[in-house]
Amino acid sequence: MDSKGRSLSETVWTRMDRKAGAIIELTMRQLRHRVSTWVVLGVGALLMALLLTFYVDSVRESFEPIDNDGDSVDNDGDGYPMGQERKYGTPDWDSDSYPGASVFIPESDIDWNDADRTVYGNKSWEGSAFFEASWVDDQYSGEWWDSHVDWNLNQEGIPELTDCSDWDLEDILDSIWSEACDMGDDDGDGMNTYYVAGKWRGTGLATVPENYYLLWGYWTEEVYIEPDPPEMYINEDGIDCFNGLILRGQDWEDSRVDCPSEDRLSGSHGFDDDGDCLALDDGNGNDENRNGIACDVQWIASNGVVTWIEADELVDEDPDEQEYIGELDHRTFVIAVGKMAFVILLGLFIPLFLSLGLVRDETENGTLHLLLSKPIHRAEFIVYRLSGYLAIAGSYVIALSLIVGLISSILGPGDQLIRLSDIPVWIGIGAATTLVLAAYGSMFNAMGLISPKYGVYLCIVFGIWEFMMGSFSIVNPNWTVASVSISHWALQMIDAVVMLAWPDTIQWAEMDNAFGMGSGLSVFWQPPVHTLGTASAGIALLNSILVLLMVTAAWVFIAKSVFSRREIM
Amino acid sequence: MTMENQEPPAVLIDQASKWYGQVIGINDLSLAIDGGVTGVLGPNGAGKSTLFKLMMGRIRPSQGSVRLFGVDPWANTSPYRRVGYVSESEKLYEWMTALDFVSTLARLHGMTREEATERSAHVLEFVGLSDVMHKELGKFSKGMRQRVKIAHALVHDPDLIILDEPLHGCDPLARTSIMSVIREMGEQGKTILVSSHILEEIERITEQIVILHNGRLLAIGNLHAIRGLLDKHPHRILIRCEDPRSLANLFVSQDPVFGVRFPKEGQLEIQTNDLSAAHSLLPSIVVNSKQKITSIENPDDNLDSLLSYLIKEGN
Fold this sequence. Notes:
The structure holds 2 protein chains of 2 kinds.
Chain A: H1 2-32, H2 35-60, H3 82-88, E1 104-110, E2 118-136, E3 162-163, H4 169-175, E4 179-182, E5 193-207, E6 214-219, E7 241-248, E8 251-257, E9 267-269, H5 276-279, E10 297-302, E11 305-311, H6 321-354, H7 360-365, H8 368-372, H9 378-411, H10 422-450, H11 455-475, H12 486-501, H13 505-514, H14 521-524, H15 537-565
Parallel strand pairs in A: 3-4
Antiparallel strand pairs in A: 1-6, 2-5, 2-6, 4-5, 7-8, 9-10, 10-11
Helix pairs in contact in A: 1-9, 2-6, 2-9, 6-9, 6-10, 6-11, 6-12, 9-10, 9-15, 10-11, 10-12, 10-15, 11-12, 12-15
Chain B: H1 2-6, E1 11-20, E2 23-33, E3 36-41, H2 48-55, E4 63-68, E5 83-86, H3 98-107, H4 113-126, H5 142-154, E6 160-163, H6 172-187, E7 191-196, H7 199-205, E8 208-213, E9 216-222, H8 223-231, E10 235-241, H9 244-252, E11 257-261, E12 267-272, H10 275-289, E13 293-297, H11 303-314
Parallel strand pairs in B: 3-7, 3-8, 5-6, 6-7
Antiparallel strand pairs in B: 1-2, 1-4, 8-9, 10-12, 10-13, 11-12
Helix pairs in contact in B: 3-4, 3-5, 4-5, 5-6
């Protein structure tokens, strides 16, 4: 009795298994015989090949060093890059002011209301004065850009100027600017007095009229300073991490370590290698991150992973891209391709072409009679058809993800032949896409059954919704509305898998943001959201898988309910 | 036999009706069929296909019940283990070979791949397609396709076989072959239902018939018995010969003949009240006339005249 019972149950199961096998095989063969299958799968493969060539291209070019803080540029065209001008304190907007250029040093002045209104000396002057000159410099240009007085010296070195000896004082003051006029030798000491307004150099006695001013000083000697090559100001302030203090000789020194591979401790790191933070006085003690230490970078870690980095301005702001961008760009590529190309594009288009007519087309073609005259429940039939579709579509995306993954992990940055840690991520991408294919497949199949005529339009509307919600989910996974979409959960799956396979991705994303490396990693990746308050990527992964499976099951159930009640003419 | 009698009949239809909106497909039909070949006769639109679709669980009766081996086929697929169905649909998987097609469908009965292939080769041989079983279905003629459909319905050795217009569109050679296949299956003791709208086809297969008209069961029983009723009513016999007029002379004096006509050149139409009596006269008169007779036809011996007679009787 017992053995009979067992053999009976075995028969039931093996028979079901054989029926499933036959329909799955039939479905796969039917799909293989359709041109649209090959077109959509071919386009998918082409898309991946195109993305890979972009990737290969960017890898082969190596990484162009980026001047993250923009100080290698010579804005004013004086031949000195901004970084060098900053060091010497010359402005980068004035071509006359550059490192080593002569500088005017003001000595003193006579203000409009000073009581003592005469001064004697050999100076560079600026202002208005009656100047009893023993010598004037006809060549004075004084590195200023305007209002220089032209003395018009003759052969003997005597200025030949307008005679204003018989002018009214008011006329003189009103009409003379940027020039001088001759008032003659009024005291008979053999030296002429000139009224001068503007800038000039000379030796003599200056008397400033009431309510006017005169400033004087001297110009320093010009020194030639070799301009630095602009490359010097690229990658000149790398990311510095320290691992506490160590004794070096007599002094305690910070021990510098590689960021971020070894040291992931919270604390104050960073070093202003190019000195531009220290040189800048922002009025707040150069402590934008408000940790009480000027010109540093605050790193905050939790569970052994850095989750927050905030740098003071101009600290570690120009790191060496070769060291970081390679890894950042690689991870961004993997995540972006996984999310955009696999989950959103392939995930939507493959089922649209392959699953919509899984059952509907059999009805329309009139071949359904052949299948339904066999002892198969209609629900069974739907499940087996979907399994056949998934066998083709799922194995296609898994194979494609592994191929793209293998190629990019061989070409990717790192010393090892293959980046082994990439493989789980690509498996995760393949699995997430397969689950999406199952969910969309069962949904589109149900649509085709609910409305054989308009199902395709329903699917397109759903597809647009899914595309939009998927795009929103990439940028802002926390947006609740987006979680009412299938793509959201598949994208969450990828986020969770990335966090499990590459736990330090969150640190890379923070470094990308804090040090302005511009890889876009944090646009495409954020830590998974649906962790049920545990912050565990594993729970987020299980959660997402469960939701996708439940959606699939729900749509299979809907399709079954519709199909079981349908009369087939 | 006693064992079988305890089992529910292969087909049991109890006061079943099926409406498609305002249109009636089947109207209050009751029927029990178990064993032998039964012809389901009726003009197009009589409800033959509706009846078969009800049996195959494709559609649900609006009223009444349908049972195959005692089980409701709409709610349960288990009867199909014992049923082979040849639908009127012409569509097959054109890219498959005949063997592939039959064995793939055989596997849906839970056979292993090997069993399925072996059984399929066997049934394809039975329907006379063993030499083309590796050819693609897309290259098959209409008759061959019908035979492939019959093969797929037979592959699991069913007890009940339902064939919806299996001779439709076939050439004479294919017809003969399919008819002999059906007769042979009947001889094997299976319950077979064959639908057709051509009386002559059914006549060559079976004597047991069901006549449907406008969704109603018009007659059920032995074809000859039914036709016997028809024989007592005015009937025509059309003879093609060299000299219809001299042949007519020989007929007019005979008792069952009440009139002659010459519808066309070389044709003689005899009008009679007793078809079988007239037919028994035929051989001796033909021999006496010493004419060459090209054909003898019974234009009234078709479904239409049978139906119109039965409908008149019903009224």
